[in-house]
Amino acid sequence: MPETAQSPWRWMDGFLSPELKRVPPEEMGRARLLIVITLVLMLFDGMILLFLPVSPQPWVHGPVILMSLAANGVALGLLRHRSTLDASATLVCATMAAMLVFTLSTSQWSASASHAAITLLPALSVYLIGPRAGLLITLPVALFIAVIHPLRFTLWGDLRGPEAVRLWMMNVSAAFCMGCLWVVSWLHSSARRKAHQAREQALRTLRESEHKLHTLIENTDDLVCSLDVEGRVLVVNSAMRKAYRIREGREPVPGEPLFPRGSAKLAALGRMMAQSFSGRGVRREDTFVHADGRHETVEVSFKPMFGEDSQPLGLTLFARNITERKVAEAKLSEVHRTLLDVSRKAGMAEAITGLLHNVGNTLNSVNVSVHLVTERLRASRVGGLARAVELLHAHRGSLAAFLERDPRGQQLPAYLVAVSSQLVEEQRALLAEQDTLAHALEHVKSIISTQQQHARVSAPVERVSVTQLIDDALRLHALPLERAGVEIRRQYDALPEVMLDRHKLLQIVLNLLSNARQALLDTPRSDKRLTVRIAARPEERLLIQVTDNGPGISREHLPRIFTQGFTTKKDGHGFGLHTSALAALEMDGTLTCDSPGPGQGATFTIDLPMQPPSAR
Q1: How confident is the model at residue 544 (pLDDT cuts 50, 70, 90)?
Q2: Helix, strand, coil percent values for the chain (each to nearest 5)
Q3: In terms of DSSP H, where are the helices of 220-237?
Q4: Which of 179, 213, 154, 200 has its CA nearest to residue 27?
Q5: What mean pLDDT do residues 283-296 have?
Q6: Residue 98: how many other CB atoms lie within 10 Å
Q7: What interhelical angle do 120-129 and 86-106 show, nearest 10?
Q8: Residue 229: what pLDDT?
Q9: Which domains, from first to last, does the chain contain?
Q10: 377-380 — which CB contacts under 8 Å span 24+ positions?
């Protein structure tokens, strides 16, 4: 942790060289302890010099104290000009050992070697110059205390008996304690060094990982931004900064909200964060219009971040420019639809060719029968029968005399018998030809009915993303709805792709959206709203609802709303809803309407199977 300017240790940094001022915190602690020890030793030397006149041996103590004072001063000077602590620490520890040996050698107190102050030497030497160098300084002093110092009072002195034994025991114990303290300090130093190495390795690994992650994030073309639970920016890459600068006119600042407080964008971000933290994936597409008129589509996804206690820590925002992919998908979809249209037209042409061929063959026999009927009618004796009837009518007053005396009347009965026989024969022939014509026409009807049946079951069915299709339909009506101030609400459940006739469903949805738009344009209310809902129903069925808060539909009009030719619009023709209802029936579905009444809007519901009948 960096130290503040009011730290009580800052004044010690004046004794350090510029290189030592930049060392790590642990090394800085060693340097400051060395400075404190040196200053304390110099203060102690100064106090001894003040009392030097009353010393029993001033000519001995004076030069030694001056040498100690000079050595400590040199140590401070080395700290000011060297980049490491080794020379200064070694000089200070050696001076301490020398002064300790000198003090014990000149002291007349036999128990001076067992003073607790001697235990400071191994601990400080191990801490300041390391275990090996500390052993080189501690070992001679310990040997001096354990051997030479007791010899001075026993063998070379007059201390005998139990007092001498006690002195040897105290000094050996003191030397042993120094050795034990050096071992403990060495173990502590080794453990601390290993911990420091492990910490440095962990920090190095962490820095490398951070560098790799930072390089990866910076080198990607995707927009990456990390936010906390309050929507404040934590990490943002260069691509995100550039895009944010283009859209918002400024760069995102770490620690500040991504969007200004109180803005609609921040509210929308909060809703998406709540949805993301609830465990549901959040993914959306955002279209941005540049100043030059270019449209840019960005796919945005939110990934939550949780702590070890499963508490939300924030989320990561990933955005990718998918404009080119959208254009390619649109082109591919257009090519696919074109191929479907071409295949449909080709199938229709082939079906019509077969239909015309079969109907043409049948019409040939119809033509022959019609020709025969015409020829028989032209050769019919109906005209002679009419003349005979006129002749009878002309002689109706003397009909018996005419039939007996007039030569024409005498031939008339035989003629009538012959004409009646011929007319009966003509009737039989015409009835036979009429049966032929009826059978031929029935055959034509059967051909057309069969073709219609095949046309109904062979409609092209494909895998369709219903949400994408609804969005495409809404996009076609987006401009007039926006101009009219209509709010569009989307309520989409997560659904898989379904198998259905794209063109028929699109035809139905476009018609419903057009009617809803017209209804909202005719209403005077200001809060115009259009809601599109997509949901899954039991038994693998799909529900699509288009709801508006327009003028609504009266109860007496609801039963007739899908009737052909019925309309409530002034310029309507009454075919759109009728055609849509038929298209829904052809897809094994239904189209229904519900309205609470005038002024309360209307809801149109499409109920379709998720799989075509053949697949089920």
Answers
A1: very high
A2: 65, 15, 25
A3: none
A4: 200
A5: 73
A6: 17
A7: 160
A8: 79
A9: 10-199 (no CATH), 220-321 (3.30.450.20), 327-457 (no CATH), 462-609 (3.30.565.10)
A10: 377/430, 380/423, 380/426
Q: In the prediction, which pLDDT does 350 show? A: 44
Tokens at residue 411, please? Answer: 């031939």
Helix (H) or strand (E) holding 526: none
Give the C-alpha separation, 388 to 287, whole Å. 94
Residues 417-428 as b/e (b if ≥16 CB within 10 A, e otherwise) read eebeebeeebee
- Higher-confidence residue: 3 or 169? 169
Q: Determine the angle formed by the axes of helices 323-378 and 407-457, rounding to 10 degrees.
A: 170
Residues 6+ away with beta carbon under 8 Å from 576: 511, 514, 515
- Predicted pLDDT at 354: 45
pLDDT at residue 527 tops 60: yes
- Burial letters for 316-347: b for 16+ Cβ neighbours within 10 Å, e otherwise? bbbbbbeeeebeeeeeeeeeeeeeeeeeeeee
Q: What are residue 593's DSSP bridge partners?
A: 604
Per-residue confidence (pLDDT) for residue 605, from 0 to 100: 93
Strands (E), 382-528: 462-464, 487-492, 498-500
Instruction: Report the percentage of the chain scoring pLDDT > 90.
Output: 5
> Which of the 8 DSSP states describes residue 231?
S
